[in-house]
Please model this.
Amino acid sequence: MIAIIDYGAGNLQSVEKALRHIGCDCLVTSDPQRLAEAQSAILPGVGAFGEAMSALRSRRLEPAIGDFVASGRPFLGICLGLQVLFDTSEESPGVAGLGLLRGKILRLPEDSGLKIPHIGWNSLEITRLGKLLSNLPPEPYLYFVHSYYLQAEGSVVAATAQYGATIHAAVEYGNLWACQFHPEKSGETGLQILRNFAAQK
Model:
């Protein structure tokens, strides 16, 4: 059973639909106990960093997520779900993220001449082939919707993308995976990424 964590940040139905399409048993829940009983978990989301952290804390999901990741079970963050795994965001100064990985979330540069938010398809450069991004075509195209991007610390970065800055677009650290793009909206390539995640035990 894959738990899809509901903290009011949206994007739940498309993730659930994609998982069911590839034959996964999944459950949308905001209950920390139901999360604790799952075999793996996905934290999706779109919206603002500060509001997301407030929602996670008010639903008592922050310690539940920490315990889940510490248990060694597979955990995947998508879009805003990637961003809140890190320490801080320029979007919400003074608000601490989950801090499960080291790094910060920055605003896409205004002086690049590119439209913000970044909405659309972008190629990835896979910098470290791990479990999440295996069996993909060279320089795969994935779908992005965001105004802020990850600058991670350490050797967790699995893929980058270019959009006025070098975006750390996917990370992998032990049982913890995350991506700035939306695999559930990225066609067959995105479905393969979800299959890769679902195959982890």
